[in-house]
Write a structure and sequence with these properties.
Serine Threonine Protein Phosphatase 5, Tetratricopeptide repeat; about 750 residues; single chain; mainly alpha
Length: about 750
């Protein structure tokens, strides 16, 4: 009987859940991934069946030993390639080719040998092997092989031939692979010294708005001596301000000695920088624009917006007051928004509310706002005119204003906030009877997202313990694994009562076979690549598919294949965005991610690994290279300067530039920072608030609200984003602990929050 050793490679990549995280889950996980409907099993069947059919065509009946040797060698090659050991992979693939040199088995062995030779820098050898394999490969694998053929040709000094291979690969591919390969072809043509062909290849992509293709075309035009190059660079420098292509275009403009940018260009660039939350760079552009003469009204308005973003409202106000007088024209109307924000930040509430009402009525266009902010500006201004009274602690004034906003804007995305803060302000301002009525009304007719909160807080002000227990039980049922369900369960436990068990998740269903041929082709290609040990290439295919308009139709098989490859990000996004949480998708929605980095770090630093995973889930959604607008990086979203200080304090290796995208570097530093904050903020909600908003702010809140019970303290956190963050991460932490068979997180809603002692302040 033939030993299907090749299958061990794929199945070893399944990476089943660790019993330390999810006890008893391994059997179910294996059944999900490799069961009759599992796409990975179909991949294995294709590999084995192809090899068996090839053997039947080339060997006498009963000749099983060459196939066994081929399978064993290909399995070893795939494992070695996945581990980054190109030399061992090349030796194993060479043995596989010797065992079965012809047809499909020989082609697969040659492709594996070519990938391994490419890994060890033997470009000519890689090109030879891959070129020989291509005619015999299955259709989904040919574009991939052609792309690696192009890479091998490029490094061995044949960029023109590389471009031809990429053109062939693009012709065989569907979007989005075709666009990516076409861009690579244009770059190869440019490297081959064929700028005219490069410009033509990049043109359609550049015209569709691809900034990378626009830069390639501009570079090609420059090489041709075409005067349109300068204009192309200038457009990129303005439209892609702050992005890599825009900065490269700016450097090219300087290199070719182009005339200095016009004032209009600098103002347009400053506006885009502000929309991207880069006010410091915007101010530099505005300073340069001012050198050309007296600033225009638009330039002054942009500077005022930049000063607001920089946290300098008094300076912004001086500029905006001059613009708002006389009160006519678009800049004067937009200046009202600046003045409203400046007044609110400086505590002049009556003035701020009146100006916000004017903004809501006049609907100004404020340069420097992102498109989504501009679209929401009138409604947001109307909401802020009511909410700022709550924010200032003037609850009696806030209640009627918030009620009016909710009444007048029932479909606004802020309507839920208004209804909640109206009830909460009633709790803070009035006697318990009024608060009971407010929460009861919200629980009775409020939308589902608000009901657990309303039930919990109605329980907190209930007139009897029995009534409180009934309300807590209802909040626990409706809140399930959410923040208010967690608080309600803890309150019931304090009363000696058992909280209700969370309702069972729906079972879900196996991943259906994709009906779209393009989706099936991408999934088949990813399966072929995983079988070869080319895991990064396979995940690249799956990530591009997951970001395409076809993602919803492909969500289940895409998640299953990515999870089988050991990836956490793609299954998480598919479950979150398209599939929902079921018994089948629960481990995708709450993955045991990067355990090789998480477990050692949490164990050595005394941090709950489930807390680290919950923070990771909210901070990065398991994307290793994500970077926030505040320059935070990596899975746990640390700023580089924070990472350096943590490394120095704990004696950990400091991260070199860009290293926070690597979990090996970023996870220990993020976990160490959690531990550091835990020393200053022993109560978990305060710790999470410090992680999100910074320890200085969390310490100030703890001082101002010292002695406040945890549940009230979280509601009184001034930052909406931080309140939501604390609730969400605590709920995720509870979910992870439940999956691991652990008790709920140690969050006591009645514990008084102490003033934070001195400690970490960065």
């Amino acid at each position: 009987m033939v030993r299907l050793v090749y299958s061990r490679v794929v199945l070893r990549r399944v990476n089943p859940p660790s019993p330390q995280f999810f006890p008893g889950a391994n059997e179910a996980f294996s059944r999900d991934v490799t069961g009759p409907c599992g796409i990975f099993r179909s991949v294995l069947r294709r590999v084995a069946a192809g090899a068996l059919l090839a053997l039947a065509a080339t060997r006498p009946a009963g000749a099983g030993e060459p196939l066994s040797a081929w399978l064993d060698s290909m399995g070893s090659a795939a494992q070695a390639l996945d581990a980054g050991d190109g030399a061992r992979a090349l030796a194993a693939a060479t043995r596989a080719r010797a065992a079965l040199p012809a047809g499909d088995p020989g082609a697969r062995a040659r492709l594996a040998a070519g990938l391994a030779a490419e890994r060890v820098g033997r470009g000519a050898h890689a090109a030879l092997e891959i070129r020989a394999a291509i005619p015999f490969l299955p259709d989904p694998a040919r574009p991939f092989a052609l792309e690696h053929l192009a890479s091998s040709l490029a490094v061995s000094g044949h960029p023109g031939a590389a471009a031809a291979a990429l053109a062939e690969a693009a012709a065989l591919s569907a979007a989005p692979e075709r666009s990516r390969l076409a861009l690579a072809e244009a770059r190869a043509l440019s490297a081959a010294g064929l700028p005219g062909a490069a410009a033509r290849a990049a043109g359609p992509l550049a015209d569709s708005g691809d900034p990378a293709a626009a830069l390639v075309r501009a570079n090609a035009l420059r090489a041709l001596g075409d005067p349109r190059a300068a204009e192309s660079y200038r457009a990129l420098w303005v439209d892609r301000a702050g992005e890599p292509e825009g900065e490269d275009a700016g450097a090219a403009l300087a290199a070719i000695g182009a005339p200095a940018p016009s004032t209009a260009d600098r103002l347009a660039r400053a506006e885009r920088l502000l929309a991207g939350a880069r006010p410091g760079l915007a101010v530099r552009e505005l300073d340069e624009a001012d050198r050309g003469g007296a600033p225009t009204a638009r330039a002054l308005l942009l500077r005022a917006v930049a000063l607001l973003q920089l946290g300098r409202p008094a300076e912004a106000e001086v500029i905006a007051r001059a613009l708002a007088d006389p009160p006519s024209g678009p800049e004067a109307r937009a200046a009202q928004w600046v003045l409203a924000r400046a007044a609110a930040r400086q505590g002049r509430l009556e003035e701020a509310a009146e100006r916000y009402r004017r903004v809501a009525a006049e609907r100004p266009v404020v340069p420097g706002l992102a498109p989504a902010q501009q679209a929401e500006l009138p409604e947001e201004a109307s909401y802020l005119a009511a909410w700022l009274w709550y924010d200032a602690g003037q609850f009696a004034k806030a209640v009627p204003r918030l009620a009016r906003f909710a009444r007048e804007h029932p479909s606004s995305k802020r309507a839920l906030d208004a209804r909640w803060f109206q009830a909460w302000a009633t709790f803070r301002a009035g006697p318990p009877a009024q608060a009971r009525r407010a929460f009861a009304a919200l629980a009775a007719d409020g939308p589902l997202p608000l009901r657990p909160a309303a039930l919990y807080w109605e329980g907190r002000v209930a007139s009897s313990p029995a009534r409180a227990a009934a309300l807590y039980a209802a909040a626990a049922r409706e809140g399930a694994d959410g923040w208010y369900g967690l608080l309600a369960s803890a309150r019931l436990a304090e009363m000696g009562l058992s909280p209700p068990r969370p309702p069972p998740l729906p079972p879900g269903s196996p991943a259906p076979a994709p009906s779209d041929a393009r989706i099936a082709t991408s999934l088949a290609l990813a399966g072929e690549l995983l079988g070869l040990g080319a895991r990064d290439d396979a995940l690249g295919v799956l990530r591009r598919l997951s970001a395409s308009p076809s993602a919803r139709a492909a969500a289940a098989p895409l998640a299953e294949l990515a999870a089988a490859a050991g990836d956490a990000e793609i299954p998480f996004r598919m479950a979150r965005d398209h599939l929902g949480v079921t018994r089948r998708t629960e481990r995708w929605a709450y993955p045991e991610a990067f355990r090789a980095s998480v477990l050692p770090a949490t164990s050595s630093l005394g941090v709950d690994p489930m807390l680290a995973l919950a923070v990771m889930r909210r901070e990065s959604a398991f994307r290793t290279g994500v970077r926030s607008g505040a320059a935070a990086e990596g899975l746990l979203q640390l700023r580089p300067e924070t990472a350096e200080r943590v490394a120095a304090l704990f004696g950990l290796p400091g991260p070199p530039a860009g290293a926070l995208a690597d979990p090996v570097s970023s996870v220990p530093l993020g976990v160490a920072y959690l531990g550091l904050l835990g020393g200053r903020f022993p109560l978990a909600p305060a710790l999470l608030a410090a992680y999100n908003a910074g320890p200085g702010r969390a310490a100030a809140w703890s001082e101002r609200l010292r002695g406040t019970p945890v549940d009230e303290w979280v509601e009184d956190v001034p930052y909406r984003e931080t309140r939501q963050y604390v609730r969400a991460v605590a709920a995720d932490w509870a979910h992870y602990r439940r999956l691991a068979g652990e008790p709920p997180p140690p969050i006591d809603p009645s514990a008084p929050v102490p003033a934070a002692p001195s400690g970490v302040a960065f």
